[in-house]
Amino acid sequence: MDAGEAQLDSIGALRRTHAAGEIRSEHVGQRVVLGGWIQRRRDHGGVVFVDLRDRGGLVQVVFKPDSSPECHARAGQLRSEYVVLVCGTVAPRSDETVNPKLPTGEVEVIADEIRLLNRATPAPFAIEAETDADESTRLRHRIHDLRRPPLQRALRLRHELYQATRASLAERDFLEIETPMLARSTPEGARDFLVPSRLQPGEFYALPQSPQIMKQLLMVAGFDRYFQIVRCFRDEDQRADRQLEFTQVDLEMSFVGVEDVLEVLEAVTVAGCAVSGVELPRPFPRMGYREAMDRFGCDRPDTRVQLELVDLSDAFAESGFRAFRSVVDAGGIVKCLPIHDADALSRGQIDKLESLVRKELGGKGLAWIRVDAEGGWQSPIAKFLSDAERAAIAERTDARPGSLIFFQADEPVRANAILSRLRLDLGERLGRVDGREWDVLFIEDFPLFEADDQGRPTYVHQPFVAPHDDDLELLESDPWRVRGTHYDVVLNGVELGSGSLRNHRSDLQRRIFELIGYSKQESEERFGFLLEALDAGAPPHGGFAFGFDRWAMVLAGASSLRDVIAFPKTQRGQDLLMDAPSEVSAGQLEELSLRVRRPRREG
């Protein structure tokens, strides 16, 4: 730009009249003022074309030397990501230049004035829908990444999901109530983030993993129906569907049973999904936890995949095949994934699956049987199987020419996890998915307890889940058989959230604390305030928590939570944009009565 343009233009009297993405044919002839970023500039024989982008979308702006020479001269100096105000008249495009891929593609703006508001350094990657930049680069330059259309759409969807959820719950007489960010440390299943107290040296707050106890206290206090969209914190290892800090829709209701809560969950889920054009069938299908594990190997099955698992443990209880028999004797299972018409899977692909099981999924191996065109069994394990075992496998799996059967003999958790993963991978690879775009269901009747590393009872979800009334007597005689009043909402194989009825009687809550190994003293130290509240007169109550980020991820069609969160953390818990976590000064540590001990470096 020339010397007279060295300083940036002020906005002056110009004010935006429209968003760039909303310009349409009905605006032809109107004079408009648009503000935004330069997506790209093209010079075609003296006429300059600029794609102007803002949150609303993109529109083409034309600068002509004959109609506005000064404006045209300025346009020649524009670069990508410069911030500008443009004034001009909306005109129709010629038939041959209409762009049907753009909502604004039938029109363009003939500019007669432009004001440069800010220059920009070159972007580290193109601000396009698709990018080949690696994720660390995108997170380091998150400002540029957030300008890309997929992330703009995802965050708009989050906003709409927020509003639909709030409206749905407010319509059902829920009160939105905030709970503290600074609380005490309580066991919730993951490590707490601790915050040192300056006023109470040597003592710590904990950031809440969820508002679980606080929302129960609100029910005891008589608020009847509560919700909030709340930030939660868990210091745990990261995955594509986990973040150290996350958002959940938290709700609780008094004087309810399971059916009352599920009715609300169904309505809120339907309302939230509708904002992205997803229409869910009602009523939601239901499945028990045991059935889900037996048929699909996981408690969040995507039932669109038309493959199911088969348990053969009893067939090998007296087997001479020691690789399977020893597992059953030790309390494990023998389970298989039968796939019919599986000729598309070559022996080389089977070997790759076995390597996946060993190296990535933690399995001991992958046994398999292939039934050839003549009905013969091709398999490294076939020679070890008795006629009775062959007959049992054939009958239960409906084995026939073209069938391929994968086996896992292991402890139940690992065997189910491996076969569940193979079921999804192979179901998608082989096209064994039905035509439904959306698959929603409730999972019910989870066990109340599971075994910890020492084989002792521990809670499956959290220690406040109420047992089924029908199973109360089993707490003393056979606690492993006790079902919890727990329920999940699953959408396309993704758990959107979990909930349950709670223990509203302190004697029952104390007994559950005892069963999971807390002494009376520990129970009082950790949860005395809750137990006192229950004794103050607690109504029956229950609730739920939607994983809001996960919900948005599924609706947006994203593969990672990081694509639906404005400023996410990496898998190592780092914020690459703001370079966090970071060291703090010695003065700050001294004020908090803290001393940092650095870990020793190996070598």
Could you please describe the fold and organization of this structure?
Helices cover 28% and strands 23% of the residues. By secondary structure, it is of the alpha+beta class. The chain is globular. The protein folds into three domains: 3-118, OB fold (Dihydrolipoamide Acetyltransferase, E2P); 151-288 and 441-586, 2-Layer Sandwich (BirA Bifunctional Protein, domain 2), CATH 3.30.930.10; 305-433, GAD-like domain (Gyrase A, domain 2), CATH 3.30.1360. The protein has an eight-stranded mixed sheet with strand order 6-9-10-22-21-20-17-11, sandwiched between helices. The chain is built from 16 helices and 22 strands.
Give a short summary of the structure.
It is built from 16 helices and 22 strands.
CATH class of the largest domain: Alpha Beta
Uncertain regions spanning at least 5 consecutive residues: 1-6
The main pleated sheet reads as: 8 strands, mixed
So, CATH architecture of the largest domain? 2-Layer Sandwich
Secondary-structure class:
alpha+beta
Neighbour order of strands in the largest sheet: 6-9-10-22-21-20-17-11
Number of helices, where a helix is a run of at least 4 consecutive DSSP H or I residues = 16
Number of domains: 3
Count of individual beta strands: 22
Proportion of beta-strand residues: 15-25%
CATH topology of the largest domain: BirA Bifunctional Protein, domain 2
Determine Rg (CA atoms, Å).
30 Å
CATH-defined superfamily of the largest domain: Bira Bifunctional Protein, Domain 2
Q: Return the average pLDDT rounded to an integer.
A: 93
N-to-C span: 57 Å
Name the shape in a single word. Answer: globular
Relative helix content: 25-40%
